[in-house]
Each structure stands twice: as C-alpha cells, then as structure tokens.
Amino acid sequence: MAMLDVKNLSKSFGSLEVLKDISFDVEKGEVVAIIGPSGSGKSTLLRCINQLERADSGVINVCGTDMLVKNAKGKTVYADAKTLRDIRLKTGLVFQNFNLFPHMNVLRNITEAPVCVLREDKSKSRERAMALLKKMGLESKDKSYPCELSGGQQQRVSIARALALNPEILFFDEPTSALDPELTGEILKVIKELAAEGMTMVIVTHEMAFARDVADKVIFMENGYIVEMGAPDQLFGENASDRVQQFLKRFNS
C-alpha cells in the first residue's frame, strides 16, 4: 500500500486554479522529486498534503489513513480533528526559508515539538536532538541561536527538527532555494544520506542533477497540472516530452 495516495486533487484561490486534477502516489522508501517552472503549483501541493492549505476537491490518503475523501453525496470532506492531528504527526515539512524560532536556541528548536506535542520526556528528547545534531554535523551548535548560524546550518537544524518527530514521510519545499551554491551542497548531501537510509521523501526542487540522481520518480508540473511523471531516465532522457526537454535546456546550457 502506498504511503501517500493523492487522487484528483484541485485547489483554487478565488478564480485562480492552482492545482488541477492532481493524482500520484508514493511508496514506502521512495523518493519523489517534483520539478517545473515557478508558479506551477508545486509548493501549494505540498501545503495541501501537509494541511497548511485546504483543498477544494479530491482524495488524500496518508499512511493508510484517509485525510480527504468524498462522502456518500460526492462532497469532498476532511477527516475529524483527531485523525487530522494523527496524520500531521506522520509527516514532516522542511521549508525553504528555515522557519526556525529566533528566540529559541538550536536544541530547544528541535525539542520543543516532541516535548510539547508528543509529551516526550525532556531528557529523552534532548538525547535524540543531540544525536540528530551529530548526524547533521552540528553537535557543537546546540546552544547557538538561529541568527548565529549560516543558512546551510539553519536548514540542517530545520531538517533535524522535522526528524525529531519521527515522521513516516518527509517533505521538502525547495530546501536549497534560499542558499548560495556552496551551502546548497551541504543540504543535498544530508538529503542523499536520508534517501540511502530509506526515508520516504517528496522533494520540490530546482536542482535538476540532484533530482536525476536521487529520485526514484520525477513529476513535472506546469500551470497546475502534472504534465509528465516517470522514472528519472524517462524525464531526463530523450524520450521525455518536448515541453520537459524545453524546460531542462536552461539547466543544461
């Protein structure tokens, strides 16, 4: 069974249709990269799956639990509040602009949710946070504040914070777009390591080489639609559609 199953998802902001009949699934341990021009609906798609936006229609199932369904009358309805909370705890989202709490040090940024939301023991939460910081190469930064860190370090703390809740699926919304090229490599290395460990991930990215090398499946979106979807060899090869090849030219030139 798929870890994530999205069917016929649509979302509008007023008269602007941002997502149009989106359907795809993600299997356990699979890495899915979503690419496409700016304004194609990629980030809105992640926000709908992570309950930061409410979809207008469609079906979303996360880890075997229905989040958004059609009822007997054909109306799109969300699950009850408890189910939505349980689903939220199974997913993690890493934003492009870090979104760390500026008034909390690194350690507290990571432990705040496990302690306050999951009611985890503080010492256990601290131990796990330090292990995650070591994994990110930041074990000496536990007492630092976000303003004292580089962009790459802040993003690694963001990833550690997401992992602290033990998500079953991890989402990345253009995790390197706010970083300069030198720091981008730090984040891509971390994501590659997570992929090698079998973490299920959905990544919106403009890093084409990364998507080609790491993803099991690539989705190309434009104007709110999924234009093409398949293995990296398909989308980055000669058999890709003319539109995908045209899009990729600007990265290869």
TrEMBL record:
InterPro entries: AAA+_ATPase, ABC_ATPase_HisP-typ, ABC_transporter-like_ATP-bd, ABC_transporter-like_CS, MetN_ABC_transporter-like, P-loop_NTPase. GO terms for molecular function: ABC-type amino acid transporter activity; ATP binding; ATP hydrolysis activity. The keyword Cell membrane applies. It is found in: Cell membrane. The keyword Disulfide bond does not apply. It is a peripheral membrane protein. Keywords: Amino-acid transport, ATP-binding, Cell membrane, Membrane, Nucleotide-binding, Transport. CDD domains: ABC_HisP_GlnQ. It comes from the Bacteria. One of its GO terms (cellular component) is plasma membrane. Residues 4-248 form the ABC transporter domain. Its main location: membrane. Belongs to the ABC transporter superfamily. This is Arginine ABC transporter ATP-binding protein.
